[in-house]
Amino acid sequence: MAKIEILRVRTDRRTQLVDVTGEVQSIVSKSAVQQGVCYVYVPHTTAGVAINEHADPDVASDIEGIMDRVVPHKGPYRHAEGNSDSHAKTILTGTSQVIFVENGRLALGRWQGIFFCEYDGPRERTMQLKVVPDAK
């Protein structure tokens, strides 16, 4: 049975995309799974996970700005904690991704990377990963 691995992510801004591709690949490598699936889950209501271009860091920066413009921090929100925007951004992003594992590597596209998406930072957060081999 595959065990859940915990990846800790520290953020230093309210809205921040953190490239965690290398850390996720490291967990896949340690699992010794050659063919299978890597499940990535963020157990938070104000943070998510996305797959997008990671070759150019300006893309992540642009997405941070887009999210802040589409769902502004201040608005006509009812939630008393002051982070309604963070909850909405998380719904837009989602909290899980599934990535195939081929030959012990994440089967991402040439320009793709995995991003932890912080919307209520700065904080220390966790991601849960489970690497499961194909059934034999």
Entry keywords:
136 residues, alpha+beta, Jelly Rolls, five-stranded antiparallel β-sheet, three-stranded antiparallel β-sheet, 8 strands, elongated
Describe the structure.
The chain has 136 residues and is α+β, with helices and mostly antiparallel strands. The protein has a single domain (5-133), classed as YjbQ-like (Jelly Rolls), CATH 2.60.120.460. The protein is 26% helix and 37% strand. The protein has 3 helices and 8 strands, in the order E-E-H-E-E-H-H-E-E-E-E. The protein has helices at residues 21-31, 57-70, 84-93, and strands spanning 5-10, 16-19, 35-41, 47-53, 96-102, 105-106, 112-118, 124-133. The strands form 2 sheets. It has a 5-stranded antiparallel beta sheet, with helices on one face. Strand 5 and strand 6 (105-106) form a beta hairpin. The radius of gyration is 16 Å and the shape is elongated.
Secondary structure: number of strands: 8
Shape, per Cα inertia axes: elongated
The CATH class:
Mainly Beta
Biggest sheet architecture: 5 strands, antiparallel
Looking at the overall shape, the CATH architecture is Sandwich
Proportion of residues in helical segments? 25-40%
What does the oligomeric state look like here? single chain
Poorly predicted sequence stretches spanning 5 or more consecutive residues: none
Mean pLDDT: 96
Distance between the termini: 14 Å
Rg from C-alpha positions? 16 Å
How many domains? The number is 1
Provide the succession of SSEs: EEHEEHHEEEE
Estimated share of beta-strand residues:
35-45%
Widest sheet, order of strands: 1-8-3-5-6
Number of distinct helices: 3
Alpha-beta content class: alpha+beta
